[in-house]
Design a protein that fits this description.
CATH topology of the largest domain in chain B: Aldehyde Oxidoreductase, domain 4
Shape of chain A: globular
Strand order of the largest sheet of chain B: 3-5-1-13-10-11-12-21
CATH superfamily of the largest domain in chain A: Beta-grasp domain
CATH class of the largest domain in chain A: Alpha Beta
Helix content of chain A: 25-40%
Helix content of chain B: 25-40%
CATH class of the largest domain in chain B: Alpha Beta
Largest sheet of chain A: 5 strands, mixed
Number of helices of chain B: 19
Distance between the termini of chain A: 51 Å
Number of domains of chain B: 3
Oligomer: heterodimer
Distance between the termini of chain B: 68 Å
Number of helices of chain A: 17
Shape of chain B: globular
CATH superfamily of the largest domain in chain B: Aldehyde oxidase/xanthine dehydrogenase, molybdopterin binding domain
């Protein structure tokens, strides 16, 4: 393990930082140390996209460009990567095609959110060969603009379809790849005063670190953990960064289950799962912005154990298993029962989530719904998921789970019981709806009232069976 | 304006800072290079909504790492208040009136250390019961100002006599500005106790005055400088003052430069938002749907202090007619005091709330009569030659709402689509569509007449003929710098790139009005033209005299100046003029003509002109969840002869989306104890890209401003916000289809999924028993 030196590529050079502050965000570093002030702070919680920067990552002899929120990413997470800022898109005084399009299509008004949009669009420009409306909107759903109403920005992005797509990053690619290879495969350890930071490359390293530093906080996307620094203004004294472990960045499948490694970014899983459970993919699209899905993981969502964690009711309904390692043993725990209390799990000190197994249910009907005030990047008021084995109108097996209805995401056992082995009838559904009141006692908070939550939970159950019966979705989005 | 140079004026050109915006080189205050020794501020605020501070122990704050100085009310030599018109907004309060009210501030070596230090304060409160609910404030007679009662005709008698009658209540939610650049100030001390103040504000002159009063110093010791702000929307008209004031106070005490940059959550907690409005109404109308009498009780949440609430409620009263002739109307207005941050200016400035209230009434009238609301709206419109006097006695001379409405109904295919929607709804039990068209008539001018003035300063440099323009206009994204530069380049017949509009500074342009009320370019553009004309006059007199010409008239075009009998290149003439000691610099001034208003009688001509527009929106709702989306919006808007059509279009679209956000997803919420719970992008949702209509068709209504406004244009600042009303009423239309349009849904704004489902269930309960 390399100590106290961080290496990343900036402007085609390897930049070395000695003794970096492990609690410093990339945003703060860029603005105050690199003195590049194009990247803006809008919210310091990953909710507005003004701070978006692009990270270049080595992926099988290719560079994968990812827009991320620099306000909730800590500086050491740059290790082994390429950092691209809005100022860096200019080459020899000439604007990048993305920047030109934004100017020509009047994509900026007050201009404060603009650098973030430019970076999101730049990542899109690099990662796709054509830019359909869906791709464009997905790419910028994590960037808030209060001035334009978005139309000119979408138009600017569409105009890129006419571009030749040979920017200077493409021309420099060979060189960048060479540099990325030069600094890859470094596990790092930074110990600075009282603060420790580890970014292991391998699972056995992670095991070792956890043994000696069992009180460390594990971090992947950091949507929750980073806010301890940026919002609660506290120090994180020991951090272990998981996204550096390539061994855990995988999706594999056999005929029984799909297995997802703990550091697999959601965005990767989202495109994989589409063919098996399209609703899972749909919920992931609305889980958070591209910036969030680029770095966040299912394991992180599970470990956070929030009652409104969006993948959790889905994983519950799918009867997933969590593979937990650490403390010299491997446990396979059912997700049902894994959440013990509000933001508490069965995970013990020194343990970590290694991977998640989702059983294949080829005959089953799987449905998931996320209800929130805003379509994009919002926290759900209620999230519901249904996994049904049905035979000619008769329910053979059913698993139902809800988020936002209790202090943890939870199965609706009473409701399930009345449905199993019964026929799909209006009467059964009514009974089942009523039983949700026995399963859940939701609360009123800033997102929704208790009453609305219960009402929607019931209606989603009804909607699910309506859709099953009519063999088509009844939703505002197609 | 016979020399309009069509290549410059009415020209689509990018924002003057567009290239800098996209490349990260546009400097906002936080991007200014900090002089050595710059300190960073943070504000300590109340965690109670209503309390007396019995002890404020800041010992641990002072001792905290990196802290250089702590300031409290005791450090203020002068006025401890930032209220613009009235007192009531203390800089540091002793008696707490809302959750988030500033109590003290610190300066430390970094922002992080300053913010950490603030948390170490030990504050003892004697908690009092807060009043959070507006109706409770009314009951307890808690007001920030005395409200007006306005009346025309005899509405009570008319309502009694009318064949049809509805009575109801309607509520409109608040709205957080959510400018992307948070509140920030940066102050650099100068010699003689002067201060250079960079503030993200819409109102530099008031900032200057408030700081001068706080420090007991002369106004000429405070220089405020604003190059651009990252969005304002009214949220930096007065709400920026407290940050600029505290920042200057810290600078005065430490004698060092101070930057005070607010964290997003703190920003939202401390600053005021849009006024919630509550109305109880009674309306009488005939069988056609013509309103014969209307009586409205209008309450607004003003928060703890008057701030701009008087003018905002005034504008609500002035727009309670929207585009409708109301022969008999009575409104009682109450400005309720609540233990919430002081409600403030927000695009529309009460006008939009007033308009929503009458739109809701008219929509209900149509639903009551089972008529197409478009028809009922049309029947009630102001007419050209009769029914053309507003309830405040102003004759409307520029009315084009009938034309706009008819044109849009046609171009949007409203009637056919409405039938199609009805068909869709009869076939679909769970998903319902709705459609609505709503008009906008919005009055332009500050309703406080004396604010309708502006200054400018124009220099021509003889060496290369380049032009420097300063005005009182704040560039906040609305493109006013671009438009002013276009106006000046047109007047001088020069290329756009020869004109530079520089930052807005109180030492260049004194006594500016806020960049607000949609008037910024109208006023400041005219002042800049006035300055240019004075220089042109100097040149003309010089040329006439020197070359013995008969006429001093000249045409400025393509870099040439053409007199009858003599033509110069611009550069050569200004050089010649300089050598002959002719001034190439001038100030300019503009004050809006024709306007007057008597606040006591509520009569007069408060507006120079009106902006008109209309929008048709079609929505889809899910009756099981309340989820919804905008399928299509068609807009037809009158911006007169635009200076820059692209900028106007941007304002129209952005305004529409912001207005739709206000009425649908944006929800400001307080706990019963007065704590705001929606203070970050995770809890407060402004529209994101998928909230824009799937199809958005924006067209301009070809028109010239009848009044002599720059380029015969009409402003686009605020009016397009109200186009968002169409979305709300389309949702209401969809809801009423659940009972085959035979019902008036009870729906308040914002129409969140929850509000929509509640409204649907309401109907179910009422009719399905």
């Amino acid at each position: 393990m390399t100590s106290n030196i961080l290496k990343f590529i900036y402007k085609n050079k390897i930049l070395e930082i000695k003794n970096p502050d492990t609690n410093e965000t990339i945003l703060n570093y860029v603005r105050t140390k690199l003195k590049k002030t194009g990247t803006k702070e809008g919210c310091a919680e990953g909710g507005c996209g003004a701070c978006s920067v692009v990270i270049g990552e080595l992926e099988e002899n290719n560079i994968k460009y990812k827009a991320i929120n620099s306000c909730i990413s800590f500086l050491p997470s740059l290790e082994g990567k390429q950092l691209i800022l809005v100022e860096d898109l200019i080459n020899n005084g000439e604007l990048h095609p993305v920047q030109k399009a934004m100017v020509n299509y009047h994509g900026s008004q007050c201009g404060f959110c603009t650098p973030g949009f430019v970076m999101s669009l730049f990542a899109m420009y690099k990662n796709y060969s054509s830019y359909k409306e869906e791709v464009i909107k997905d790419s910028i759903q994590g960037n808030l603009c209060r001035c334009t109403g978005y139309r000119p920005i979408v138009e600017a992005a569409k105009s890129l379809n006419k571009d030749k797509k040979r920017d200077f990053f493409a021309k420099d690619k060979k060189n960048t790849l060479k540099l990325l290879k030069k600094i890859k495969n470094r596990s790092i350890k930074i110990i600075d005063n009282n603060k420790k930071y580890f970014a292991p490359k391998f699972v056995n390293e992670l095991n070792k670190i956890l043994r000696s530093e069992p009180n460390s906080k594990l971090i992947s996307g950091g949507t929750d953990v980073s806010l301890i620094v940026t919002k609660e203004l506290k120090d994180l004294n020991s951090l272990i960064y998981l996204n550096s472990i390539d061994e855990l960045n995988y999706i594999k499948e056999n005929n029984k289950f799909i297995e997802v490694g703990a550091s697999t970014p959601l965005i990767k899983f989202e495109s994989f799962i589409k063919k098996y459970f399209p609703d899972f993919s749909e919920v992931l699209k609305r889980y958070g912005s591209v910036q969030i899905r680029n770095v966040c993981t299912i394991a992180g969502n599970i470990a956070t154990a929030s009652p409104i964690g969006d993948t959790l009711p889905l994983l519950l309904a799918l009867d997933s298993q969590i593979i937990v390692k650490g403390q010299n043993k491997t446990q396979i725990l059912p997700i049902n029962g894994f959440f013990t209390n509000y933001r508490k799990t069965k995970l013990k000190k020194g343990q970590f989530i290694h991977s998640i197994r989702i059983p294949f249910l080829k005959q089953n009907i799987f449905k998931a719904y996320k209800i929130s005030k805003r379509i994009d990047d919002d926290i759900s008021s209620v999230c519901a998921s249904f996994n049904i084995e049905i035979n000619k109108d008769k329910i053979k097996k059913i698993k139902i789970a809800y988020g936002g209805m209790s202090n943890t995401p939870k199965r609706a056992f009473n409701c399930e019981k009345v449905l199993v082995n019964s026929n799909l009838s209006y009467k059964t559904i009514s009974k089942a709806k009523k039983l949700l009141e026995k399963d859940f006692k939701p609360i009123t908070d800033t997102r929704a009232t208790q009453k609305y939550r219960m009402e929607v939970a019931k209606n989603l159950l009804e909607k699910c069976f309506l859709e099953v019966k009519q063999k088509k979705n009844i939703r505002i989005n197609g | 304006m016979d020399n309009i140079n069509t290549t410059i004026i009415e020209q689509i050109r990018p924002h003057e800072s567009g290239i800098k915006h996209v490349s990260g080189y546009a400097k906002y205050i936080d991007d200014i290079v900090e002089p050595k020794g710059t300190l960073h501020g943070a504000i300590g605020y109340s965690k109670r909504a209503h309390a007396i501070i019995t002890k404020l122990d800041l010992k641990d704050v002072s001792k905290s790492e990196g802290v250089i100085s702590v300031v409290t009310s005791k450090d203020i030599p002068g006025r401890n208040d930032v209220g613009a018109v009235y007192d009531g907004d203390p800089i540091f309060t002793k008696k707490v009136e809302y959750f988030g009210q500033p109590l003290f501030a610190v300066a430390a070596t970094t922002t992080e250390l300053a913010r950490k230090a603030v948390l170490k304060a030990k504050i003892t409160y004697k908690t009092l019961k807060p009043v959070v609910d507006v109706r409770e404030a009314l009951k307890k007679k808690l007001f920030v100002l005395k409200g007006k009662k306005i009346k025309r005709g005899n509405p009570i008698k008319k309502i009694k006599k009318s064949k049809n009658y509805i009575k109801g209540s309607f509520e409109l939610g608040s709205q957080e500005h959510f400018y992307l650049e948070g509140q920030i100030a940066f102050v650099i001390p100068q010699e003689d106790n002067d201060f250079k103040v960079y503030s993200s504000t819409q109102h530099p002159s008031e900032t200057q005055q408030i700081i001068a009063k706080m420090l007991n110093q002369k106004n000429n010791t405070i220089h405020v400088d604003v190059r651009r702000i990252g969005g304002g929307f009214g949220g930096k008209e007065t709400q920026s003052f407290i940050f600029a004031a505290i920042c200057t106070l810290l600078s005065k005490k430490t004698k060092r430069p101070i930057k005070l940059r607010m964290d997003r959550d703190d920003d939202i907690l401390i600053t005021g938002k849009r006024h919630n409005f509550y109305s109880d109404y009674e309306v009488g109308f005939n069988d056609k749907g013509i309103i014969e009498g209307v009586k409205i009780k209008l309450l607004s949440r003003c928060g703890i202090s008057p701030d701009l609430s008087g003018a905002i409620n005034g504008r609500a009263l002035l727009h309670i007619d929207n585009a409708y002739y109301l022969s008999n109307i009575q409104v009682e207005n109450y400005l309720c005091k609540t233990n919430t941050s002081s409600s403030t200016a927000f695009r529309g400035f009460g006008g939009n709330q007033g308009m929503m209230i009458i739109e809701n009434i008219i929509d209900n009238v149509a639903k009551y009569l089972s008529k197409d609301s478009a028809e009922v709206r049309k029947l009630n419109f102001y007419q050209k030659n009769k029914k053309n006097i507003t309830h405040y006695g102003m004759k409307i001379k520029d009315n084009v709402i009938n034309e706009i409405f008819n044109k849009l109904i046609k171009s949007s295919d409203y009637k056919k689509r409405r039938l199609k929607i009805k068909k869709f709804n009869s076939k679909n039990k769970y998903l319902k569509k709705g459609i609505a068209i709503t008009p906008v008539k919005f009055g332009i001018s500050f309703t406080t007449t004396h604010l309708n003035q502006a200054g400018a300063l124009v220099h021509i440099y003889y060496a290369d003929g380049s032009v420097h323009v300063s005005t009182g206009a704040i560039e906040m994204g609305q493109g006013t710098y671009t438009k002013i530069a276009q106006l000046v380049s047109n007047e001088l017949g020069l290329n756009f790139n020869k004109i530079k509009v520089s930052s807005t500074r109180t030492d260049k342009i004194p006594n500016t009005s806020a960049s607000a009320a949609s008037t910024t370019t109208d006023l400041n553009g005219a002042a800049a033209i006035n300055a240019v004309n004075k220089i042109k006059k100097n040149l003309a007199l010089f040329v006439k005299k020197k070359y013995k010409l008969n006429s001093d008239k000249a045409i400025y075009k393509n870099g040439m100046i053409k007199f009858k009998g003599k033509t110069f290149s611009f550069n050569s003439l200004v050089k010649e003029a300089y050598l002959n000691r002719i001034s190439l610099s001038s100030s300019g001034f503009y004050s809006t003509p024709k306007i007057f208003f008597n606040n006591k009688t509520f009569k007069g001509r408060p507006f120079l002109y009106f902006c008109y527009g209309a929008a048709v929106s079609e929505v889809l709702i899910d009756t099981l969840t309340g989820e919804n989306k905008i399928l299509r919006t068609d807009i037809l808007h009158d911006h007169g002869r635009a200076i820059n059509p692209a900028i106007e279009k941007g304002q129209i679209e952005g305004g529409f989306v912001q207005g739709a956000g206000w009425l649908t997803i944006e929800e400001v919420k307080w706990k019963l104890n007065g704590e705001l719970t929606t203070h970050s992008p995770s809890t407060y949702k402004i529209p994101a890209v998928n909230d824009m209509p799937e199809q958005l068709i924006v067209k301009n209504f070809r028109n010239l401003n009848k009044e002599n406004v720059v380029n015969k244009s009409k402003t686009t600042g605020e009016p397009p916000l109200m186009l968002g009303m169409s979305v709300f009423f389309a949702i209401k239309d969809a809801i009423s289809s659940t009972r085959n349009y035979q019902v008036i849904p009870n729906l308040n704004a914002p129409a969140t999924p929850e509000a929509i489902l509640l409204s649907i269930n309401d109907i179910k309960k009422k009719y399905e028993k």
